[in-house]
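One example given next:
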Amino acid sequence: MPQTSLQPDIAPGGPPHAAQDIPAPPHFPGTGWRWLDRIVAALVLLGGVCLLAIVVIVTLGVVMRYAFGTPLLGVNEFVQLTAVALVMAALPYCTAGNDHVAVDVFENTLGRWGRFTGDILSRLLAGIVLSILTQRAWVKVLDAWEWGDATNMLRMPIWPFYLILAAGAGLCVVIFAAQILGILRRGGR
């Protein structure tokens, strides 16, 4: 379980204070490699910009449609591509913090060596799948760049979105590799 929030300090015999019920903002999880942490931080910042852009465009589209009777064309294209960028830009941050969904139904049954093996295999499998995704996305970056692929309505170039997809997936592969090395160093504890 990542340590991204403070646990409330419950005084004996009483409820926690209201201010202590609110979790602290998550800290940057860090990978242990400064260069990788900087790239992950830049991508998560890009993800935040994408989220704000989606909110602004959708709000503007709704206001234009219902207040002025003139729909904003291309909102769907923009939201679809920007959502891909948002998710793939935030994925390395989530990976670095071990914030992915984990099901630990068999954790006690497996024992420490079973958990050790499961941790290694899950990261290895995710790394393999994301390696394939990275390679295929990079091929699409080059194709979209060469052919000038763009969206139908807005004529937005598609290659930057494939590039963000490749970068996010590729960084996740590096982070999974670093996590596997850390798990192997610690052993089955």
Notes: The chain has five helices and no strands. The helical segments are 18-21, 34-68, 75-96, 107-147, 159-186.
